[in-house]
Amino acid sequence: MNNAPALVVALDFPEAAPALALASRLQGVVPWVKVGLELYLSAGQDLLARLKDMGFLVFLDLKFMDIPNTVQAATAQATRMGADMLTIHALGGRAMCEASAAGRDQALAPGQTPPCILGVTLLTSLGPKDLAWNPAATDDELRDLTVHLARSAQNWKLDGVVCSGREVRVIRQACGASFQLLTPGIRLPDADSGDQSRVCTPAQAARDGSNYLVVGRPITKSDNPVQAARNYLKTIT
Ligand code: C5P
């Protein structure tokens, strides 16, 4: 891959004030911020509008999974709110994924760039023993299932998938150059991995072909978040 991945800072805060305080320090430093379930449930649509006004591209990580009609409507709402990227579960199946893409397309304002819809394949918190339908699955089988889901997501009109650093290379090979890959669990070699067990360095994820790297606590909990963000940027550009 020739293009450097974009850095996405996960604003994992319980309310708007600290999220906006950090965002104002990161203006002009990082292009993307992520709003997840906790912050969205606390601060919602207003916060999204504020972040957009500050010039950020917003990744709305709410991982929709419901009947196709509901996910279509939810994706349409996220599109109207100006989300630039959002997540749904690929395990929701073809009809749900295609409905999400249709909801996005029908809600686009004139001239609006379509938000990128990413599928979550298997949550990286799941191990082989968690597959209820095959408790004897091996790590290889789990990886094969993840690749199968990524290929399915691509056939079902999704723009890309969320994947761990371990899967970037194999999904890139399976799905081609234009499929978007977003990788959380990113750590510089000397950083504390926290509760993430399958971490990957930004340089490795970039080399393997990830398009977006999500970093949370190493930046949000740093004494100098701007310098911390710059340290990550330095290794990927
Ligand atoms: O603080 P840290 O860098 O570990 O934050 C990673 C962010 O990426 C969090 O917002 C977390 O919800 C998200 N994430 C993840 N692993 C996944 C999917 C999302 O860590 N498989």
SSE blueprint and pairings:
Layout: E1 6-10, H1 16-26, E2 32-36, H2 37-53, E3 57-64, H3 68-81, E4 85-89, H4 93-107, E5 116-120, H5 139-155, E6 160-162, H6 168-175, E7 180-183, H7 202-208, E8 212-215, H8 217-220, H9 225-236
Helix pairs in contact: 1-2, 3-4, 5-6
Bound molecules: cytidine-5'-monophosphate.
GO molecular function, one term: orotidine-5'-phosphate decarboxylase activity
Binding site for substrate: 12, 34, 61-70, 124, 187, 196, 216-217
Catalytic activity: orotidine 5'-phosphate + H(+) = UMP + CO2
Structural summary, described in words:
The structure is a single chain. With 237 residues, the protein is an alpha/beta fold. Helices cover 44% and strands 16% of the residues. It is built from nine helices and eight strands. The protein has helices spanning 16-26, 37-53, 68-81, 93-107, 139-155, 168-175, 202-208, 217-220, 225-236; strands at 6-10, 32-36, 57-64, 85-89, 116-120, 160-162, 180-183, 212-215. It has an eight-stranded parallel beta barrel with strand order 1-2-3-4-5-6-7-8, surrounded by seven helices. Helix 1 packs across helix 2 (37-53). The chain is globular, with a radius of gyration of 17 Å. The mean pLDDT is 94.
